[in-house]
Write a structure and sequence with these properties.
Number of strands: 16
Distance between the termini: 55 Å
Number of helices: 15
CATH superfamily of the largest domain: Bira Bifunctional Protein, Domain 2
Number of domains: 2
Bound molecules: adenosine-5'-triphosphate, magnesium ion
Strand content: 15-25%
Helix content: 25-40%
Structural class: alpha+beta
Largest sheet: 8 strands, mixed
Oligomer: single chain
CATH topology of the largest domain: BirA Bifunctional Protein, domain 2
CATH architecture of the largest domain: 2-Layer Sandwich
Shape: elongated
Radius of gyration: 28 Å
């Protein structure tokens, strides 16, 4: 019986991994250009961490976590998101005492969701978090940074929605108003919502059930309940986005699926990927550090789904960079392989980043040329009897009808670099 992969957990094969590498490189490069430094975090954390941070009454904690008792009897969970671990690491390592940190991290996350396009059980996030920053300036900069990413990647099918959730106090007042309204239409609520009415009514606004849409749309909105300071914070954020010429719409029903947010929340969504349209989402979580046992520290961040980014990049016409060799060395005859290796290493020594594949496993000239063609290399470099004797290399363009030429081995690096457009 053939072994199967775990449902919802994908292999990322070589034909797409080049795109992944490219996008990972660009995202990292942009984050670092804004002063964010990498932090690498464990995949496993104590289960309690996620219960306390994400919230008990959330889809993730209620039904999506991969939780198990390790051999010592401790309950551990494969991380479903990165923020909790980031904050935990900040506390554990004493990074948060009168300090400010701009951090990024990336890697696999695990949620036992129903697998479908854009929704997997192991997926990958790129995550940025600013710890110790209270003002709307950092909220704006985080959004500007994401907008730069879309621009650099030629992605234009994204829309930005923002909202403010206010302070916990303001939210409590709003919560009462919301519960009052939802109770008045209780007979029309679905089961999930009825259950949440007591425990976490805001999450009803986040309901993915289309039958709940009408009820949700008629509900009171948080923005009408904002405290003065949060309203100012929100106004300043909008002004900064306006002057950076970033388009957004205000979605008063955007509450985000996790409990820890306050004030700013935002989401970049697309219509290009079917129903899994959220590509990058984030917000402020000023209360979380304290809740997890650290000294009160304001914080804000976003997370981006890499699978959705790859998909969207391709949907917007993005191409993956070529990973095929520039040249494929065909070597036939006594001592040919030794010279092939020497020529290949000399080319790799060069400063031009030339990618070389040497024919492995021998074979006739004809079969080696076939492999060269299949490799998608631009050129075949041919070492036959005559070339070996004369210390030359035959150079055959594989993607045009141009004739084969002969080049002295000691001129090969410069000549090939020039032909590939890699020399200054
Ligand atoms: P959704 O509304 O699609 O469930 P979410 O609100 O649960 O998303 P977050 O927890 O904010 O998502 O995670 C940030 C990003 O991670 C999302 O915007 C999305 O791009 C990606 N993401 C979340 N869950 C998955 C998943 N199961 N598979 C693939 N990507 C995901
Ligand atoms: Mg989700």
């Amino acid at each position: 019986m053939k072994p199967k992969a775990v449902k919802g957990m994908n292999d990322i094969l070589p034909d797409v991994s080049a795109t992944w590498q490219y996008l990972e490189y660009v995202v990292r490069d942009i984050a670092q250009s804004y002063g964010y430094a990498e932090i690498r975090l464990p995949l496993l954390e104590q289960t309690e961490l996620f219960k306390r941070s994400i919230g008990e009454v959330t889809d993730i904690v209620e039904k999506e976590m991969y939780t198990f008792d390790d051999r010592g009897g401790e309950s551990l969970t494969l991380r479903p998101e990165a923020t909790a671990g980031m904050v935990r690491a900040g506390i554990t390592n004493g990074l948060l005492h009168n300090q400010r940190h701009k951090l990024w991290t990336a890697g696999p996350m695990f949620r036992r969701e129903k697998p479908q396009r854009g929704r997997y059980r192991q997926f990958h996030q790129f995550d940025v978090e600013a710890l110790g920053f209270a003002g709307p300036d950092v909220d704006a900069e985080l959004i500007i940074m994401s907008a730069r990413l879309w621009q650099r990647l030629g992605i234009d099918r994204l829309a930005l929605e923002i909202n403010s959730l206010g302070t916990p106090d303001a939210r409590a007042t709003y919560r009462d108003a919301l519960v009052e309204y939802l109770s008045s239409v209780k007979s029309q609520l679905d089961q999930d919502s009825i259950r949440r009415l007591e425990q976490n009514p805001l999450r009803i606004l986040d309901s993915k059930n289309p039958e709940m849409r009408g009820i949700v749309e008629a509900a009171p909105v948080m923005l009408d309940f904002l405290d003065v300071e949060s309203a100012e914070h929100f106004a300043e954020l909008k002004a900064l986005l306006d002057s950076a010429r970033i388009d957004y719409s205000i979605n008063p029903r955007l509450v985000r699926g996790l409990d820890y947010y306050n004030r700013t929340v935002f989401e970049w969504t697309t219509d290009a990927l079917g129903s899994q349209g959220a590509v990058c989402s984030g917000g402020r979580y000023d209360g979380l550090v304290e809740k997890l046992g650290g000294r009160a520290t304001p914080a804000v961040g976003w997370a981006m789904g890499m699978e959705r980014l790859v998909d969207l990049y391709e949907a917007c016409g993005g191409k993956s960079p070529s990973i095929s060799a520039d040249a494929y060395i065909v070597a036939v005859g006594d001592g040919a392989l030794e010279q092939a290796f020497a020529v290949a290493e000399a080319l790799r020594d060069g400063i031009h980043g030339i990618r070389i594949e040497v024919n492995l496993g021998g074979g006739s000239f004809k079969s080696q040329m076939k492999r060269a063609d299949k490799s998608e290399a631009e050129y075949a470099l041919i070492l036959g009897e005559q070339e070996l004797a004369e210390k030359r290399v035959g150079l055959k363009p594989l993607r045009s009808g141009d004739d084969q030429t002969s080049i002295a081995q000691d001129e090969l690096v410069e000549t090939l670099a020039k032909m590939l457009g890699r020399s200054e």
